[in-house]
Design a protein that fits this description.
The structure is a single chain. The protein is mostly helical. The chain has 13 helices and no strands. The termini are close together.
C-alpha cells in the first residue's frame, strides 16, 4: 500500500470517530439537569415568558433532532456556533485560547520526551542494578501522582522557599507584549522583548515541570521495557557472538529496533499532554483551552463546550495520523 493511500485511509477512519464523539457530547449536554438560559441569566433571570423568548432566540425550543441536524450542518461548514455567554463565535474563542495550551504542551513535550528516553536507556543498560530499580520505581511513583496534586504541592513549596517564581497566568500584568502568534516565547523573540521572554519562562517553569514530568515517567517506563525486551532477542545474541562490543550491539541492533514503539508512544503523548493540560491550567490559572472548557461547563454554554471538545478531538486525531505516518515511514510493514 502506498503511503498516500495509507494516509487517506487513516483520515477517513477519523470521520466516524468524530461523528460519534460530537453526537455523544451533543446528547449529554441536552440530558444533564439544569437550564442553560437560567444559568446564563443567573440572578437576572426574569419571568418564564422572558426565559422562553431567549430560549427561542437561541433555538433551544426546537425538537432535539432539528437542533442536532442544524448543529452538524453548521459544523460541516466550519461554523462552531456562538458562545451563549460571551456572545462571540466559538472558533474565535478557541483560536484565542489555543496558543496558551499549545505553548504549554510543546515545552512539556520538550522536557518530558527526551528526558524519558534518556532515563529509559540509562536504566535498560543497567538492568537489574540499583540505578535501574531507582529509575523504574521513581517513574512509576511519578506516573501515579495526579498533576493537580503535584501542581498544588509545587505552589506551596514555591511560596515557602522560592517566592520569586509566579504561581499563575502566562505573563506579569505590568509587562506589555505584542501578540503575533499567541506563543509568548516566540512573540517575545520576534519583537526582541527580552523582559517578556524572561518573564514568560518564569511563568512556564512550574506548569511545565508539573505536566512534563508525567511524560518523563511514562516514556521512561515504556523505553526501558522495550529496550530490555529487544536486548533478549536472538539477533542481538547473535551480534554478541560475532564479537561486537556491547556499545556496538546497543547502537546498531538494540536502539534502532526499540525506538519504533518508543517514538510511536512519544507521539501519542502529545495528545495525552493536551488532556493533562486541562487540570494543569486549572491549578496554575493558565488561560488555555482547559480553563475555557471549565468556564463553559460552569455556565452550561452548549456551543462552547461542544466546540472545545470537537477542537480537542480534531487535534488528537491529527496527531494520531501524523504518528501513523511516521510509523509507516519507519516500518513499512504497518501499511499492510
Amino acid at each position: 500500500m502506498r503511503i498516500r493511500e495509507f494516509v487517506l485511509i487513516r483520515a477517513l477512519m477519523m470521520v466516524p470517530m468524530l461523528l460519534v464523539l460530537v453526537t455523544i457530547v451533543f446528547l449529554i449536554m441536552r440530558v444533564v439537569p439544569g437550564d442553560p438560559v437560567v444559568a446564563l441569566m443567573g440572578a437576572r433571570a426574569g419571568s418564564e415568558q422572558q426565559i422562553n423568548i431567549i430560549r427561542h432566540s437561541l433555538g433551544l425550543d426546537k425538537p432535539l433532532y432539528l437542533q442536532y441536524l442544524e448543529y452538524m450542518g453548521n459544523l460541516l461548514r466550519g461554523d462552531f456556533g456562538y458562545s451563549l455567554v460571551r456572545q462571540r463565535p466559538v472558533i474565535d474563542e478557541l483560536l484565542h485560547y489555543f496558543p496558551a495550551t499549545l505553548e504549554l504542551t510543546i515545552w512539556s513535550m520538550l522536557l518530558g520526551i527526551p528526558s524519558g528516553v534518556y532515563l529509559g536507556v540509562y536504566a535498560a543498560r543497567r538492568e537489574g542494578s540499583k540505578v535501574d530499580t531507582f529509575i523504574t520505581t521513581g517513574a512509576l511513583v511519578r506516573w501515579c501522582i495526579p498533576v493537580f496534586w503535584l501542581g498544588t504541592i509545587l505552589q506551596v513549596l514555591v511560596v515557602q522557599y522560592a517566592p520569586v517564581l509566579p504561581l499563575s497566568d502566562r505573563i506579569s500584568p505590568q509587562i506589555t507584549l505584542t501578540r503575533i502568534t499567541g506563543l509568548y516565547l516566540v512573540d517575545s523573540i520576534i519583537t526582541g522583548n527580552v523582559t517578556a521572554f524572561v518573564d514568560t519562562l518564569r511563568h512556564l517553569l512550574l506548569p511545565v515541570i508539573t505536566l512534563g514530568t508525567t511524560t518523563t515517567a511514562s516514556v521512561a517506563t515504556i523505553a526501558r521495557a522495550n529496550l530490555v525486551e529487544v536486548q533478549g532477542e536472538e539477533y542481538v545474541k547473535i551480534a554478541r557472538l560475532k564479537g561486537c562490543t556491547e556499545d556496538q550491539v546497543f547502537r546498531k541492533h538494540v536502539l534502532p529496533n526499540a525506538l519504533i514503539p518508543i517514538l510511536t508512544y512519544a507521539g501519542l503523548e502529545v495528545a495525552i499532554l493536551m488532556q493533562g493540560a486541562v487540570l494543569t491550567e486549572t491549578v496554575f490559572s493558565w488561560p488555555g483551552l482547559g480553563r475555557l472548557l471549565l468556564f463553559a461547563v460552569g455556565f452550561r454554554d452548549f456551543n462552547l463546550i461542544q466546540g472545545t471538545v470537537v477542537f480537542f478531538a480534531l487535534i488528537m486525531g491529527l496527531v494520531n495520523i501524523l504518528v501513523d505516518i511516521s510509523y509507516a515511514l519507519v516500518d513499512p510493514r504497518v501499511r499492510y
